[in-house]
Amino acid sequence: MGGGREWCHREVAPFSAVIAVDTVAVGVTTLFKAANSRGMSSHVFLLYAYAIASLLLLPAPFFSLKSRVLPPLSLAILAKIGLLGLVGGFSQILGYVGISMSSPTLGSAISNLTPALTFIFAILFRMEEVSLNKRSSQAKIIGTILSISGASVITLYRGPPVNFTPKPSLSLYPLVQASNSDWVGGGILLTADYVLVTLWYILLKQIMKEYPAELTVIFFYNVTVSFITAIVCLVMEHDMSAWRVQGIGLISVICLGLFERCLNNVVHTWQSG
């Protein structure tokens, strides 16, 4: 019984957690696209969401310090967390601008680049050894090629629209409507987003080796991204009406801050630890 519980905790729990947070991510991006089609700014959306996540995790550093013996939170570690916030912040900005230009469907499709890019960067940083004689390496190489090819096709070739009804629903049509130029531009931004996401995972892994306190790291990360998005908002959003959120915009902000920026980041940080 003990062995079965240990196997479930080690193998099934992480897999289930990733499936859950990825499902939530798809729902949040769809909500964001619906709010964005009604005029909500992606920059304001990110600022409020990260601010909510930071407030929710505010007690985390105090509990982490009391519950375990941790190395000192040095300036070097804080600088690395700041770099993590810089990478993650610009990743999110590029990603949500890309979704606003295209659709959540394209974002979900290009997110499949993450394993391929992680494999490539792991080789470049000598974190992964590749041998063409091993089947595992061959499978990873083939999977990487297929992943990148699939993302390239869906970005560069949109194809004719497929409508199941004579007239698309006015409520759903803005979620998939985009010109070909916006579709390609959005795909390029989303690809850049997932390149930065891959670097984010690698940097997070290194930070967790030095300072294994998941909630504390994610708290300071969210605070850093909040400052970055606040600066971007002040530069990009001069109309004060853009700062007001209500209706579906408010729902999407709360969902992103609570479920994705808070829980999602905690789950990924837990796996990296």
| Structural domains: how many | 1
Average pLDDT: 77
What kind of oligomer do you see?
A: single chain
Shape: globular
SS element count, helices: 11
Query: What is the number of E strands?
Result: 0
Residue runs with pLDDT of under 50 for 5 or more positions: 162-176
Give helix % range: over 70%
What is the first-to-last residue Cα distance? Answer: 26 Å
- Main beta-sheet strand count, sense and barrel state: none
Structure class: mainly alpha
Relative strand content:
under 5%
Tell me the series of helices and strands, N- to C-terminal: HHHHHHHHHHH
Radius of gyration: 20 Å
Keywords:
273 residues, mainly alpha, 0% strand, globular
What does this structure look like?
- There is one protein chain.
- The chain is mainly α.
- It has one domain (25-158, 172-272).
- It is built from eleven helices and no strands.
- The protein has helices at 2-36, 42-56, 60-67, 75-101, 104-110, 113-124, 135-156, 173-176, 180-210, 214-236, 248-272.
- Helix 2 runs antiparallel to helix 10, helix 6 crosses helix 9 and helix 10 packs across helix 11.
- The two termini are 26 Å apart.
